[in-house]
């Protein structure tokens, strides 16, 4: 490997001083090279920055820009530059101020060659040490960057596992270059083929499926800020700082089905939650998914379609049956048998839950909410809502507001 050569700039307004310094030292023996000379302060600044000098020897009393000004500007741009100031006895106060500016040392005129040589040797050792530290830092940084995905994954595991305090979560979010604000959503994804066959899959096959899912999910959601985590059971959790809609979730399901020939189920929590609440939300999702495993694939897909397309006022048993390529009668009987509720009851429950959320968390007009949850008219929505909740949507909202005001 080539030896490091350090660039030196000599700055003095007296040519004889510059020449003396240049000639009195065996620069090559020190692995140093006098890259340039400057005769005033302005030129010293310009040449120092142009050549990114490692060592600057400068007279404290320079024309145009004095030595102190040069030192300040050079140190601001080249903090590792080692500076030796040259001064006379009558300038010693300036030299003391220069030392406060973090110069390496000073030389008194007339210059003692042995003293200068000693200082340059010390500087060389200092620069060698700086280079070693920088190389170590670069290697450490490179290793950190290489391991960052694994480190982030382990952090998400601890976070969702409920093992961290809010303060620890915020600190680690910042440390791992992640968004420190409260996430907008928790999305849990289950791969049905993985969950149904994990007992017969080898560890290698499990790893390949998880990596393939991760790649395609993150590729599909590449413009979103996401924290990705999968656990041993095969469930995938996405901590999301920019919301994804039900429509996007459905598109993701179709994308995975097309690209990987796998079926996934997506569970979205649309409420912004505190850092610590992710643990309980994830736990609830896991329990719900375990129950889902007792449901046939056709009914699971029907439920998924309802979860993501409930806002479509034309959604019907017949439409879902066509999508699933089964008869409406068969689908209706299967849903009733496995879920103990009809298709219409399941769809209405989903719509009402979302309507309640919107009534509580937004000031949208009732007509807007009715459209957002899949009803063609406000009257039809209000009738359905009152039948289930016992009060009209307007009355329900007023009750919520009154309760909130009473608490305050």
Summary of the model, kept short:
Keywords: Cytoplasm, DNA-binding, Phosphoprotein, Transcription, Transcription regulation, Two-component regulatory system. Its main location: cytoplasm. This protein has 408 residues and is α/β, with parallel strands linked by helices.
Care to describe what's here?
This protein has 408 residues and is α/β, with parallel strands linked by helices. It has 3 domains: 6-134, 3-Layer(aba) Sandwich (Rossmann fold); 161-294, Alpha-Beta Plaits (2-Layer Sandwich), CATH 3.30.70; 307-408, Homeodomain-like (Arc Repressor Mutant, subunit A). Helices cover 59% and strands 12% of the residues. The protein has 17 helices and 9 strands. It has helices at 15-24, 41-51, 67-77, 92-100, 113-160, 166-175, 192-197, 203-220, 246-260, 277-292, 297-309, 317-324, 328-339, 343-361, 366-372, 378-389, 393-407; strands at residues 6-11, 32-38, 55-59, 82-87, 105-108, 185-191, 226-230, 236-240, 264-269. Strands 2-1-3-4-5 form a 5-stranded parallel sheet, sandwiched between helices. Helix 4 (92-100) links the parallel strand 4 and strand 5 (105-108). It is elongated and about 105 Å long. The mean pLDDT is 87.
């Amino acid at each position: 490997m080539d030896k490091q050569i350090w660039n030196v700039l000599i700055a003095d307004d007296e040519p004889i001083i510059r020449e003396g310094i240049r000639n009195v030292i065996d620069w090559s023996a020190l692995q140093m090279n006098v890259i340039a000379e400057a005769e005033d302060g302005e030129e010293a600044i310009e040449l120092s920055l142009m050549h990114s000098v490692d060592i600057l020897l400068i007279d404290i009393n320079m024309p145009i820009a004095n030595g102190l000004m040069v030192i300040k500007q050079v140190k601001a741009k080249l903090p590792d530059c080692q500076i030796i100031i040259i001064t006379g006895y009558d300038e010693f106060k300036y030299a003391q101020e220069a030392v406060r500016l973090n110069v390496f040392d000073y030389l008194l005129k007339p210059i003692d060659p042995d003293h200068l040589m000693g200082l340059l040797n010390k500087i060389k050792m200092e620069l060698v040490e700086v280079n070693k530290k920088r190389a170590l830092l670069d290697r450490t940084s490179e290793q950190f960057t290489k391991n960052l995905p694994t480190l982030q994954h382990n952090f998400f595991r601890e976070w969702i596992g409920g093992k961290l305090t809010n303060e620890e979560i915020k600190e680690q979010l910042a440390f791992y270059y992640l968004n420190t604000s409260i996430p907008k959503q928790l999305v849990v994804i289950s791969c049905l083929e993985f969950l149904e066959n994990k007992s017969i899959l080898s560890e290698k096959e499990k790893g390949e499926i998880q990596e393939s899912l991760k790649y395609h999910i993150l590729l599909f959601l590449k413009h979103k800020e996401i924290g990705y985590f999968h656990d041993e059971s095969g469930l995938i959790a996405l901590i999301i700082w920019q919301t994804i809609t039900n429509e996007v979730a459905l598109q993701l399901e179709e994308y995975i089905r097309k690209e990987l020939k796998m079926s996934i189920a997506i569970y979205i929590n649309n409420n912004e939650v505190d850092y610590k609440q992710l643990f309980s939300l994830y736990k609830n999702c896991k329990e719900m998914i375990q129950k889902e495993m007792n449901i046939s694939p056709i009914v699971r897909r029907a439920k998924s379609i309802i979860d993501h397309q409930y806002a479509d006022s034309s959604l019907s048993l017949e439409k879902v049956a066509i999508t699933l390529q089964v008869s409406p009668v068969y689908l209706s009987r299967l849903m009733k048998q496995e879920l103990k509720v009809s298709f219409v009851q399941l769809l209405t429950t989903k719509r009402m839950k979302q309507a309640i959320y919107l009534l509580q968390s937004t000031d949208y007009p009732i007509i807007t909410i009715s459209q957002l949850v899949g009803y063609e008219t406000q009257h039809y929505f209000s009738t359905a809502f009152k039948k289930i909740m016992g009060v009209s949507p307007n009355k329900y909202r007023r009750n919520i507001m009154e309760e909130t005001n009473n608490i305050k």
